[in-house]
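Notes taken during the Thursday session

The instructor put the following on the board and asked us to keep it in front of us for the whole hour. The protein is CoA-acylating methylmalonate-semialdehyde dehydrogenase. We were told not to look anything up and to reason only from what is written here. First, the residues (497 in total):
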Amino acid sequence: MKIIPHFIGGQKTGGASQRRSDVFNPATGEVQAQVALGDAVDLESAVSAARAAFPKWADTPALTRSRILFRVRDLVEKRADELAAVISAEHGKTIPDAKGEVTRGMEVIEFATAAPEILKGEYTEQVSRGIDAWTMRQPLGIAAGITPFNFPVMVPLWMAPMAIATGNCFIIKPSERDPSASVMLAEIFKEAGLPDGVLQVVHGDKDMVNAILEHPEIKAVSFVGSTPIAKHVYATGTAHGKRVQALGGAKNHAIVMPDCDLDKTVDALTGAAWGSAGERCMAISVAVAVGPVADALVNKLAERARTLKIGPGEDGSNDMGPLITAQHRERVCRLVDSGVEQGATLVVDGREHVISGHEKGFFTGASLFDNVTYDMKIYQEEIFGPVLCVMRAPDFETALKLVNESPFGNGTAIFTRDGDTARSFTHRVQAGMVGINVPIPVPMAFHSFGGWKDSLFGDHHMHGPEGVRFFTRLKAVTSRWPEGIRNGAEFSMPTLG
Ligand code: NAD
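Then, after some discussion, the predicted C-alpha coordinates were revealed:
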Protein backbone atom coordinates (compact mmCIF):
# COMPACT_ATOMS: atom_id res chain seq x y z
CA MET A 1 0.00 0.00 0.00
CA LYS A 2 1.34 3.43 -0.97
CA ILE A 3 1.96 5.67 2.07
CA ILE A 4 1.64 9.42 1.50
CA PRO A 5 4.45 11.00 3.54
CA HIS A 6 4.89 14.27 5.40
CA PHE A 7 7.33 16.79 3.91
CA ILE A 8 9.52 18.03 6.74
CA GLY A 9 12.86 19.89 6.51
CA GLY A 10 12.93 19.42 2.74
CA GLN A 11 12.47 15.63 2.90
CA LYS A 12 9.60 13.19 2.59
CA THR A 13 9.20 11.24 5.81
CA GLY A 14 6.79 8.71 7.26
CA GLY A 15 7.02 10.52 10.61
CA ALA A 16 6.97 9.24 14.16
CA SER A 17 3.29 8.35 14.52
CA GLN A 18 2.20 4.98 13.21
CA ARG A 19 -1.43 6.06 12.69
CA ARG A 20 -2.68 5.92 9.11
CA SER A 21 -5.87 6.86 7.29
CA ASP A 22 -7.24 5.44 4.02
CA VAL A 23 -7.26 7.65 0.93
CA PHE A 24 -9.96 6.56 -1.52
CA ASN A 25 -10.43 6.82 -5.24
CA PRO A 26 -13.99 8.24 -5.04
CA ALA A 27 -14.79 7.12 -8.59
CA THR A 28 -14.17 3.44 -7.82
CA GLY A 29 -14.69 3.40 -4.06
CA GLU A 30 -11.34 1.65 -3.62
CA VAL A 31 -8.59 2.53 -1.18
CA GLN A 32 -5.65 3.74 -3.28
CA ALA A 33 -3.21 4.84 -0.57
CA GLN A 34 -2.83 5.58 3.10
CA VAL A 35 -1.74 8.85 4.61
CA ALA A 36 0.45 9.14 7.70
CA LEU A 37 -1.56 10.77 10.47
CA GLY A 38 1.00 12.82 12.35
CA ASP A 39 1.04 13.87 15.99
CA ALA A 40 2.70 16.46 18.21
CA VAL A 41 6.12 14.78 17.74
CA ASP A 42 5.88 15.14 13.94
CA LEU A 43 4.76 18.72 14.33
CA GLU A 44 7.74 19.40 16.58
CA SER A 45 10.10 18.18 13.82
CA ALA A 46 8.48 20.61 11.38
CA VAL A 47 8.56 23.50 13.85
CA SER A 48 12.23 22.92 14.60
CA ALA A 49 13.08 22.91 10.86
CA ALA A 50 11.06 26.14 10.46
CA ARG A 51 12.75 27.69 13.50
CA ALA A 52 16.16 26.99 11.92
CA ALA A 53 15.10 28.38 8.51
CA PHE A 54 13.21 31.48 9.65
CA PRO A 55 15.99 34.01 10.51
CA LYS A 56 17.69 33.65 7.13
CA TRP A 57 14.41 33.59 5.20
CA ALA A 58 13.05 36.65 6.98
CA ASP A 59 16.30 38.50 6.15
CA THR A 60 16.24 37.44 2.50
CA PRO A 61 15.47 40.47 0.31
CA ALA A 62 11.89 40.48 -0.94
CA LEU A 63 13.15 40.53 -4.52
CA THR A 64 15.08 37.30 -3.97
CA ARG A 65 11.98 35.69 -2.44
CA SER A 66 10.03 36.93 -5.41
CA ARG A 67 12.44 35.37 -7.90
CA ILE A 68 11.94 31.98 -6.27
CA LEU A 69 8.18 32.46 -6.58
CA PHE A 70 8.55 33.23 -10.29
CA ARG A 71 10.21 29.83 -10.67
CA VAL A 72 7.49 28.18 -8.55
CA ARG A 73 4.87 29.71 -10.81
CA ASP A 74 6.56 28.36 -13.94
CA LEU A 75 6.88 24.88 -12.44
CA VAL A 76 3.22 24.86 -11.40
CA GLU A 77 2.26 25.81 -14.95
CA LYS A 78 4.57 23.14 -16.40
CA ARG A 79 3.19 20.47 -14.08
CA ALA A 80 -0.45 21.61 -14.17
CA ASP A 81 -1.62 18.41 -15.88
CA GLU A 82 0.13 16.27 -13.28
CA LEU A 83 -1.34 18.33 -10.43
CA ALA A 84 -4.79 18.12 -11.98
CA ALA A 85 -4.49 14.34 -12.30
CA VAL A 86 -3.52 14.04 -8.61
CA ILE A 87 -6.44 16.28 -7.58
CA SER A 88 -8.91 14.34 -9.69
CA ALA A 89 -7.70 10.91 -8.53
CA GLU A 90 -8.15 11.71 -4.82
CA HIS A 91 -10.96 14.29 -4.89
CA GLY A 92 -12.95 12.98 -7.85
CA LYS A 93 -13.57 16.28 -9.67
CA THR A 94 -13.19 16.36 -13.44
CA ILE A 95 -9.80 17.06 -14.99
CA PRO A 96 -10.87 20.39 -16.61
CA ASP A 97 -12.29 21.53 -13.25
CA ALA A 98 -9.05 20.47 -11.51
CA LYS A 99 -7.01 22.42 -14.06
CA GLY A 100 -9.13 25.49 -13.34
CA GLU A 101 -8.33 25.10 -9.67
CA VAL A 102 -4.59 24.91 -10.42
CA THR A 103 -4.83 28.12 -12.48
CA ARG A 104 -6.67 29.97 -9.70
CA GLY A 105 -3.98 28.85 -7.23
CA MET A 106 -1.22 29.88 -9.61
CA GLU A 107 -2.69 33.36 -9.76
CA VAL A 108 -1.99 33.79 -6.04
CA ILE A 109 1.65 32.86 -6.71
CA GLU A 110 1.68 35.51 -9.45
CA PHE A 111 0.33 38.10 -7.02
CA ALA A 112 2.91 37.07 -4.41
CA THR A 113 5.78 37.55 -6.88
CA ALA A 114 5.11 41.26 -6.33
CA ALA A 115 6.61 40.89 -2.82
CA PRO A 116 8.85 43.99 -3.07
CA GLU A 117 5.84 46.08 -4.09
CA ILE A 118 3.27 44.68 -1.69
CA LEU A 119 5.65 45.01 1.27
CA LYS A 120 6.38 48.68 0.65
CA GLY A 121 5.77 50.76 3.74
CA GLU A 122 4.59 54.34 4.07
CA TYR A 123 6.98 57.23 4.65
CA THR A 124 6.35 60.75 5.90
CA GLU A 125 9.19 63.21 5.86
CA GLN A 126 9.26 65.96 8.51
CA VAL A 127 6.42 64.81 10.80
CA SER A 128 7.95 67.41 13.09
CA ARG A 129 11.03 69.55 12.62
CA GLY A 130 13.95 67.25 11.82
CA ILE A 131 11.86 64.16 12.43
CA ASP A 132 10.80 61.55 9.85
CA ALA A 133 8.42 58.61 10.30
CA TRP A 134 7.69 55.45 8.38
CA THR A 135 5.96 52.14 8.69
CA MET A 136 7.05 48.72 7.53
CA ARG A 137 5.62 45.23 7.52
CA GLN A 138 7.61 42.37 8.98
CA PRO A 139 6.93 38.62 9.04
CA LEU A 140 5.30 36.94 12.02
CA GLY A 141 7.58 33.88 12.18
CA ILE A 142 6.11 30.40 11.77
CA ALA A 143 2.55 30.20 10.41
CA ALA A 144 0.35 27.21 9.60
CA GLY A 145 -2.46 26.50 7.16
CA ILE A 146 -5.21 23.92 7.69
CA THR A 147 -7.11 23.15 4.50
CA PRO A 148 -10.31 21.37 3.38
CA PHE A 149 -10.70 18.54 0.89
CA ASN A 150 -12.53 20.43 -1.82
CA PHE A 151 -9.63 22.44 -3.29
CA PRO A 152 -6.46 20.46 -2.54
CA VAL A 153 -4.24 22.76 -4.64
CA MET A 154 -6.03 26.11 -4.72
CA VAL A 155 -6.63 26.56 -0.99
CA PRO A 156 -3.04 25.72 0.07
CA LEU A 157 -1.98 28.19 -2.63
CA TRP A 158 -4.31 30.87 -1.20
CA MET A 159 -2.02 30.78 1.82
CA ALA A 160 1.50 29.47 1.21
CA PRO A 161 2.72 31.99 -1.43
CA MET A 162 1.44 34.89 0.70
CA ALA A 163 3.08 33.60 3.89
CA ILE A 164 6.37 32.86 2.12
CA ALA A 165 6.53 36.06 0.06
CA THR A 166 6.14 38.06 3.26
CA GLY A 167 9.08 36.25 4.91
CA ASN A 168 7.39 33.62 7.08
CA CYS A 169 7.93 29.89 7.32
CA PHE A 170 4.73 27.98 6.57
CA ILE A 171 3.44 24.55 7.56
CA ILE A 172 0.47 23.11 5.62
CA LYS A 173 -1.85 20.54 7.21
CA PRO A 174 -3.94 19.40 4.23
CA SER A 175 -7.18 17.45 4.33
CA GLU A 176 -6.44 13.80 5.10
CA ARG A 177 -8.89 12.82 2.34
CA ASP A 178 -6.80 14.17 -0.56
CA PRO A 179 -3.35 14.91 0.85
CA SER A 180 -1.00 14.14 -2.08
CA ALA A 181 -1.27 17.47 -3.90
CA SER A 182 0.21 19.42 -0.97
CA VAL A 183 3.29 17.18 -0.94
CA MET A 184 3.69 17.73 -4.66
CA LEU A 185 3.43 21.50 -4.15
CA ALA A 186 6.12 21.40 -1.43
CA GLU A 187 8.41 19.50 -3.82
CA ILE A 188 7.80 22.12 -6.50
CA PHE A 189 8.72 24.95 -4.11
CA LYS A 190 11.92 23.09 -3.19
CA GLU A 191 12.80 22.51 -6.84
CA ALA A 192 12.34 26.23 -7.44
CA GLY A 193 15.03 26.96 -4.84
CA LEU A 194 13.03 27.53 -1.64
CA PRO A 195 15.29 26.73 1.34
CA ASP A 196 14.40 23.65 3.36
CA GLY A 197 12.14 24.34 6.33
CA VAL A 198 10.38 27.35 4.76
CA LEU A 199 7.46 25.30 3.39
CA GLN A 200 6.53 21.98 4.98
CA VAL A 201 3.59 19.59 5.01
CA VAL A 202 2.37 17.64 8.02
CA HIS A 203 -0.58 15.31 7.67
CA GLY A 204 -3.14 14.41 10.24
CA ASP A 205 -6.61 14.75 11.64
CA LYS A 206 -7.90 16.62 14.66
CA ASP A 207 -4.92 15.60 16.83
CA MET A 208 -2.53 17.36 14.48
CA VAL A 209 -4.85 20.37 14.19
CA ASN A 210 -5.02 20.70 17.96
CA ALA A 211 -1.22 20.33 18.25
CA ILE A 212 -0.89 23.22 15.76
CA LEU A 213 -3.41 25.37 17.64
CA GLU A 214 -1.60 24.86 20.93
CA HIS A 215 1.99 25.17 19.72
CA PRO A 216 3.53 28.31 21.25
CA GLU A 217 5.90 28.98 18.35
CA ILE A 218 3.20 29.00 15.67
CA LYS A 219 2.13 32.62 15.49
CA ALA A 220 -0.68 32.50 12.96
CA VAL A 221 -3.17 29.96 11.65
CA SER A 222 -5.01 30.24 8.38
CA PHE A 223 -7.95 27.80 8.21
CA VAL A 224 -10.52 26.87 5.58
CA GLY A 225 -13.19 24.25 6.27
CA SER A 226 -16.64 23.76 7.76
CA THR A 227 -18.19 26.25 10.18
CA PRO A 228 -18.10 24.13 13.37
CA ILE A 229 -14.38 23.40 12.89
CA ALA A 230 -13.68 27.01 11.87
CA LYS A 231 -15.27 28.17 15.15
CA HIS A 232 -13.17 25.67 17.11
CA VAL A 233 -9.97 26.70 15.31
CA TYR A 234 -10.68 30.38 15.88
CA ALA A 235 -11.56 29.97 19.57
CA THR A 236 -8.65 27.64 20.40
CA GLY A 237 -6.07 29.42 18.25
CA THR A 238 -6.85 32.88 19.62
CA ALA A 239 -6.99 31.49 23.19
CA HIS A 240 -3.39 30.41 22.58
CA GLY A 241 -2.43 33.91 21.49
CA LYS A 242 -2.41 33.32 17.75
CA ARG A 243 -3.62 35.41 14.89
CA VAL A 244 -6.36 33.34 13.20
CA GLN A 245 -8.34 33.65 9.99
CA ALA A 246 -10.89 30.81 9.87
CA LEU A 247 -13.08 30.55 6.79
CA GLY A 248 -16.16 28.38 7.30
CA GLY A 249 -19.07 26.88 5.41
CA ALA A 250 -21.72 28.49 3.27
CA LYS A 251 -25.23 28.45 1.92
CA ASN A 252 -25.04 30.73 -1.07
CA HIS A 253 -28.25 32.24 -2.44
CA ALA A 254 -28.87 33.49 -5.95
CA ILE A 255 -31.83 35.82 -6.39
CA VAL A 256 -33.46 35.36 -9.79
CA MET A 257 -35.47 38.43 -10.81
CA PRO A 258 -38.31 38.22 -13.37
CA ASP A 259 -36.41 40.53 -15.76
CA CYS A 260 -33.29 38.33 -15.95
CA ASP A 261 -32.05 36.64 -19.12
CA LEU A 262 -33.53 33.30 -18.17
CA ASP A 263 -31.47 31.02 -20.42
CA LYS A 264 -28.19 32.58 -19.33
CA THR A 265 -29.31 32.44 -15.69
CA VAL A 266 -30.11 28.74 -16.04
CA ASP A 267 -26.67 28.12 -17.60
CA ALA A 268 -25.04 29.98 -14.72
CA LEU A 269 -27.02 28.17 -12.01
CA THR A 270 -26.45 24.75 -13.59
CA GLY A 271 -22.66 25.08 -13.32
CA ALA A 272 -22.76 26.82 -9.95
CA ALA A 273 -25.11 24.32 -8.27
CA TRP A 274 -23.96 21.00 -9.66
CA GLY A 275 -20.39 21.65 -10.88
CA SER A 276 -17.80 19.81 -8.78
CA ALA A 277 -20.79 17.82 -7.39
CA GLY A 278 -21.76 20.89 -5.35
CA GLU A 279 -18.63 20.52 -3.21
CA ARG A 280 -17.63 24.17 -3.47
CA CYS A 281 -17.90 26.73 -0.71
CA MET A 282 -19.07 29.17 -3.39
CA ALA A 283 -21.60 26.77 -4.96
CA ILE A 284 -25.08 28.19 -5.35
CA SER A 285 -27.24 25.94 -3.19
CA VAL A 286 -30.37 28.13 -3.00
CA ALA A 287 -32.07 29.88 -5.92
CA VAL A 288 -34.68 32.40 -4.81
CA ALA A 289 -37.13 32.87 -7.66
CA VAL A 290 -38.90 36.21 -7.47
CA GLY A 291 -42.47 36.45 -8.72
CA PRO A 292 -43.57 34.93 -12.02
CA VAL A 293 -40.18 33.58 -13.10
CA ALA A 294 -40.38 30.53 -10.79
CA ASP A 295 -42.22 27.97 -12.95
CA ALA A 296 -40.11 28.57 -16.06
CA LEU A 297 -36.92 28.58 -13.98
CA VAL A 298 -37.72 25.25 -12.31
CA ASN A 299 -38.69 23.61 -15.62
CA LYS A 300 -35.49 24.67 -17.34
CA LEU A 301 -33.30 23.71 -14.36
CA ALA A 302 -34.98 20.30 -14.19
CA GLU A 303 -34.18 19.64 -17.83
CA ARG A 304 -30.52 20.47 -17.17
CA ALA A 305 -30.32 18.38 -13.99
CA ARG A 306 -31.71 15.32 -15.79
CA THR A 307 -29.21 15.56 -18.65
CA LEU A 308 -25.96 16.24 -16.78
CA LYS A 309 -23.16 13.89 -17.78
CA ILE A 310 -21.94 12.24 -14.61
CA GLY A 311 -18.94 9.93 -14.32
CA PRO A 312 -15.32 9.59 -13.27
CA GLY A 313 -13.29 12.80 -13.20
CA GLU A 314 -10.59 11.38 -15.49
CA ASP A 315 -13.11 11.56 -18.37
CA GLY A 316 -12.92 15.28 -19.09
CA SER A 317 -16.24 15.23 -20.95
CA ASN A 318 -18.17 14.62 -17.72
CA ASP A 319 -19.95 17.56 -16.09
CA MET A 320 -19.52 16.24 -12.58
CA GLY A 321 -17.75 13.46 -10.71
CA PRO A 322 -18.43 11.57 -7.48
CA LEU A 323 -18.64 12.84 -3.91
CA ILE A 324 -15.59 12.62 -1.68
CA THR A 325 -16.51 9.64 0.54
CA ALA A 326 -19.21 7.01 0.99
CA GLN A 327 -20.19 8.66 4.31
CA HIS A 328 -20.63 12.03 2.64
CA ARG A 329 -22.74 10.43 -0.09
CA GLU A 330 -24.95 8.89 2.60
CA ARG A 331 -25.29 12.26 4.37
CA VAL A 332 -26.30 14.03 1.14
CA CYS A 333 -28.91 11.33 0.38
CA ARG A 334 -30.27 11.51 3.96
CA LEU A 335 -30.68 15.26 3.60
CA VAL A 336 -32.59 14.75 0.35
CA ASP A 337 -34.81 12.24 2.24
CA SER A 338 -35.44 14.89 4.89
CA GLY A 339 -36.47 17.43 2.25
CA VAL A 340 -39.10 15.01 0.94
CA GLU A 341 -40.30 14.25 4.48
CA GLN A 342 -40.58 17.96 5.30
CA GLY A 343 -42.74 18.64 2.25
CA ALA A 344 -40.44 20.14 -0.39
CA THR A 345 -41.14 19.11 -4.00
CA LEU A 346 -38.35 16.84 -5.25
CA VAL A 347 -38.42 17.68 -8.96
CA VAL A 348 -35.27 15.72 -9.86
CA ASP A 349 -34.06 12.91 -7.61
CA GLY A 350 -30.33 12.10 -7.82
CA ARG A 351 -30.24 9.58 -4.97
CA GLU A 352 -30.20 6.35 -6.95
CA HIS A 353 -27.86 7.39 -9.72
CA VAL A 354 -25.54 4.48 -10.62
CA ILE A 355 -22.64 4.74 -13.07
CA SER A 356 -22.17 1.54 -14.97
CA GLY A 357 -18.67 0.15 -14.42
CA HIS A 358 -18.34 2.35 -11.31
CA GLU A 359 -21.06 0.87 -9.13
CA LYS A 360 -18.95 1.20 -6.00
CA GLY A 361 -18.01 4.83 -6.67
CA PHE A 362 -19.43 7.57 -4.45
CA PHE A 363 -21.74 9.00 -7.11
CA THR A 364 -25.11 10.64 -6.85
CA GLY A 365 -27.05 12.36 -9.58
CA ALA A 366 -28.10 16.00 -9.48
CA SER A 367 -31.13 16.76 -7.28
CA LEU A 368 -33.51 19.69 -7.60
CA PHE A 369 -36.04 20.79 -5.01
CA ASP A 370 -38.86 23.29 -5.47
CA ASN A 371 -41.05 24.97 -2.82
CA VAL A 372 -38.33 24.85 -0.17
CA THR A 373 -39.13 26.81 2.98
CA TYR A 374 -37.06 28.41 5.73
CA ASP A 375 -37.67 25.78 8.42
CA MET A 376 -36.53 22.78 6.33
CA LYS A 377 -33.28 21.00 7.11
CA ILE A 378 -32.25 21.15 3.43
CA TYR A 379 -32.40 24.95 3.77
CA GLN A 380 -30.87 25.25 7.23
CA GLU A 381 -27.85 23.00 6.67
CA GLU A 382 -24.98 23.20 4.24
CA ILE A 383 -25.50 20.04 2.13
CA PHE A 384 -22.22 20.33 0.20
CA GLY A 385 -23.53 18.07 -2.54
CA PRO A 386 -25.27 18.35 -5.93
CA VAL A 387 -28.61 19.54 -4.53
CA LEU A 388 -30.20 22.83 -5.57
CA CYS A 389 -33.09 24.22 -3.52
CA VAL A 390 -35.51 26.62 -5.20
CA MET A 391 -37.49 28.96 -2.93
CA ARG A 392 -40.23 31.26 -4.10
CA ALA A 393 -40.47 34.91 -3.02
CA PRO A 394 -43.18 37.39 -4.02
CA ASP A 395 -40.80 40.34 -4.39
CA PHE A 396 -37.19 41.52 -4.18
CA GLU A 397 -37.49 42.75 -0.57
CA THR A 398 -38.64 39.31 0.65
CA ALA A 399 -35.83 37.60 -1.27
CA LEU A 400 -33.22 39.99 0.13
CA LYS A 401 -34.51 39.48 3.68
CA LEU A 402 -34.09 35.73 3.23
CA VAL A 403 -30.47 36.11 2.15
CA ASN A 404 -29.74 38.49 5.00
CA GLU A 405 -31.30 36.24 7.63
CA SER A 406 -29.07 33.30 6.69
CA PRO A 407 -26.44 32.65 9.35
CA PHE A 408 -23.92 32.25 6.50
CA GLY A 409 -22.61 35.12 4.40
CA ASN A 410 -20.04 33.75 1.99
CA GLY A 411 -21.10 34.48 -1.59
CA THR A 412 -24.37 35.57 -3.16
CA ALA A 413 -25.58 36.62 -6.58
CA ILE A 414 -28.44 38.38 -8.32
CA PHE A 415 -29.65 37.80 -11.87
CA THR A 416 -31.35 40.86 -13.31
CA ARG A 417 -31.18 43.40 -16.13
CA ASP A 418 -32.13 46.23 -13.78
CA GLY A 419 -29.31 48.43 -12.51
CA ASP A 420 -31.35 49.88 -9.64
CA THR A 421 -32.15 46.46 -8.23
CA ALA A 422 -28.57 45.26 -8.67
CA ARG A 423 -27.22 48.32 -6.91
CA SER A 424 -29.66 48.06 -4.05
CA PHE A 425 -28.74 44.37 -3.67
CA THR A 426 -25.00 45.08 -3.68
CA HIS A 427 -25.39 47.84 -1.13
CA ARG A 428 -27.69 46.06 1.31
CA VAL A 429 -26.83 42.37 1.13
CA GLN A 430 -25.04 40.83 4.12
CA ALA A 431 -22.36 38.71 2.45
CA GLY A 432 -18.65 38.98 1.74
CA MET A 433 -18.68 38.32 -2.01
CA VAL A 434 -21.40 39.49 -4.39
CA GLY A 435 -22.07 38.62 -8.02
CA ILE A 436 -24.22 40.59 -10.45
CA ASN A 437 -25.15 38.09 -13.16
CA VAL A 438 -22.03 36.21 -11.99
CA PRO A 439 -22.97 33.06 -10.09
CA ILE A 440 -19.65 32.33 -8.35
CA PRO A 441 -18.06 35.70 -7.60
CA VAL A 442 -14.67 34.44 -6.41
CA PRO A 443 -12.36 37.46 -6.21
CA MET A 444 -9.17 37.33 -8.28
CA ALA A 445 -5.86 36.81 -6.48
CA PHE A 446 -5.09 40.55 -6.32
CA HIS A 447 -8.32 41.15 -4.37
CA SER A 448 -9.16 39.22 -1.21
CA PHE A 449 -11.49 36.25 -0.65
CA GLY A 450 -13.73 35.89 2.38
CA GLY A 451 -17.27 35.75 3.69
CA TRP A 452 -19.19 37.37 6.53
CA LYS A 453 -21.10 35.98 9.53
CA ASP A 454 -20.61 32.21 10.10
CA SER A 455 -18.55 31.98 6.91
CA LEU A 456 -15.48 33.67 8.41
CA PHE A 457 -14.10 34.05 11.92
CA GLY A 458 -11.30 36.57 12.28
CA ASP A 459 -10.52 39.93 10.77
CA HIS A 460 -8.73 39.21 7.54
CA HIS A 461 -9.89 37.76 4.28
CA MET A 462 -7.63 35.45 2.28
CA HIS A 463 -4.85 36.45 -0.19
CA GLY A 464 -4.55 39.80 -2.01
CA PRO A 465 -3.95 42.87 0.19
CA GLU A 466 -5.68 41.20 3.16
CA GLY A 467 -3.30 38.23 2.87
CA VAL A 468 -0.32 40.59 3.15
CA ARG A 469 -1.82 42.14 6.29
CA PHE A 470 -2.61 38.76 7.82
CA PHE A 471 0.92 37.40 7.47
CA THR A 472 2.79 40.55 8.57
CA ARG A 473 2.90 42.88 11.53
CA LEU A 474 3.25 46.58 11.28
CA LYS A 475 6.19 48.49 12.73
CA ALA A 476 6.16 52.29 12.90
CA VAL A 477 9.51 54.07 13.17
CA THR A 478 10.12 57.69 14.22
CA SER A 479 13.63 58.99 13.65
CA ARG A 480 15.73 62.07 14.17
CA TRP A 481 19.45 62.81 14.05
CA PRO A 482 21.51 64.87 16.53
CA GLU A 483 21.13 68.17 14.68
CA GLY A 484 17.34 67.97 15.16
CA ILE A 485 17.40 67.05 18.86
CA ARG A 486 16.39 69.90 21.16
CA ASN A 487 18.34 70.40 24.36
CA GLY A 488 16.84 69.25 27.64
CA ALA A 489 14.43 66.54 28.66
CA GLU A 490 10.79 66.71 27.52
CA PHE A 491 8.05 65.73 29.94
CA SER A 492 4.92 66.70 28.02
CA MET A 493 3.35 64.71 25.22
CA PRO A 494 5.36 65.67 22.12
CA THR A 495 3.49 67.91 19.67
CA LEU A 496 4.47 69.73 16.52
CA GLY A 497 7.16 72.31 17.14
P1 NAD B 1 -13.68 20.08 7.54
O1 NAD B 1 -14.05 21.21 8.44
O2 NAD B 1 -14.20 18.73 7.86
O3 NAD B 1 -12.08 19.91 7.49
C1 NAD B 1 -11.23 21.02 7.29
C2 NAD B 1 -9.90 20.75 7.99
O4 NAD B 1 -10.15 20.63 9.39
C3 NAD B 1 -9.23 19.46 7.53
O5 NAD B 1 -7.85 19.70 7.38
C4 NAD B 1 -9.52 18.49 8.67
O6 NAD B 1 -8.48 17.55 8.87
C5 NAD B 1 -9.66 19.38 9.89
N1 NAD B 1 -10.62 18.85 10.86
C6 NAD B 1 -11.72 18.09 10.60
N2 NAD B 1 -12.37 17.79 11.74
C7 NAD B 1 -11.67 18.37 12.75
C8 NAD B 1 -11.85 18.44 14.17
N3 NAD B 1 -12.86 17.84 14.77
N4 NAD B 1 -10.95 19.14 14.89
C9 NAD B 1 -9.92 19.76 14.28
N5 NAD B 1 -9.70 19.73 12.95
C10 NAD B 1 -10.56 19.05 12.18
O7 NAD B 1 -14.06 20.53 6.06
P2 NAD B 1 -14.03 19.65 4.74
O8 NAD B 1 -15.13 18.65 4.79
O9 NAD B 1 -12.64 19.19 4.44
O10 NAD B 1 -14.35 20.80 3.66
C11 NAD B 1 -15.66 21.20 3.35
C12 NAD B 1 -16.07 22.42 4.12
O11 NAD B 1 -15.15 23.48 3.91
C13 NAD B 1 -17.43 22.97 3.69
O12 NAD B 1 -18.13 23.36 4.83
C14 NAD B 1 -17.06 24.17 2.83
O13 NAD B 1 -18.07 25.17 2.74
C15 NAD B 1 -15.87 24.66 3.54
N6 NAD B 1 -15.05 25.51 2.68
C16 NAD B 1 -15.08 26.85 2.90
C17 NAD B 1 -14.35 27.69 2.08
C18 NAD B 1 -14.37 29.18 2.29
O14 NAD B 1 -13.59 29.84 1.66
N7 NAD B 1 -15.21 29.71 3.16
C19 NAD B 1 -13.57 27.16 1.04
C20 NAD B 1 -13.56 25.78 0.86
C21 NAD B 1 -14.30 24.96 1.69
